[in-house]
């Protein structure tokens, strides 16, 4: 009777091995689910970035407004008879003032 019990225990252990430690084990499935959740989060962030870049590309292809804005903000270019104003905010917690993006205004 002890031999039969021992055989059944060994058989149950052999059947349980793939469930806990094998190729398709619960631990592996849980780990893969965690990786899927992380990848979906990353994909969502990248999709938002791609949508923003796509909108910017369409804007640059269709009109001059975006090009003019870029020329002003990144290259400091201004139109003829236009006055350029740069506003610098003082941040009290910071030891040095941080410049804010330049703004432009039409001179009349």
Automatic annotation (TrEMBL):
Alphabetical list of InterPro entries matching this protein: Cell_div_FtsB, FtsL/DivIC
The name this protein goes by in its record: Cell division protein FtsB
Cytoplasmic side: 1-3
Organism of this sequence: Methylobacillus methanolivorans
HAMAP family on file: FtsB
Protein family: Belongs to the FtsB family.
Signal peptide coordinates: none
Periplasmic side: 22-108
Lineage, broadest ranks: Bacteria, Pseudomonadati, Pseudomonadota, Betaproteobacteria, Nitrosomonadales
Localisation per UniProt entry: Cell inner membrane
């Amino acid at each position: 009777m002890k031999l039969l019990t021992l055989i059944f225990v060994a058989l149950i252990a052999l059947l349980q091995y793939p469930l806990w430690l094998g190729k398709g084990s619960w631990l592996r499935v849980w780990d893969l689910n965690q990786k899927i959740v992380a990848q979906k989060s990353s994909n969502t962030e990248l999709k938002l970035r791609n949508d923003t870049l796509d909108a910017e590309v369409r804007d640059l292809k269709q009109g001059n407004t975006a090009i003019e804005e870029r020329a002003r903000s990144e290259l400091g270019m201004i139109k003829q008879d236009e006055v350029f104003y740069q506003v610098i905010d003082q941040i009290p917690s910071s030891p040095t003032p941080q410049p804010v993006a330049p703004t432009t205004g039409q001179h009349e």
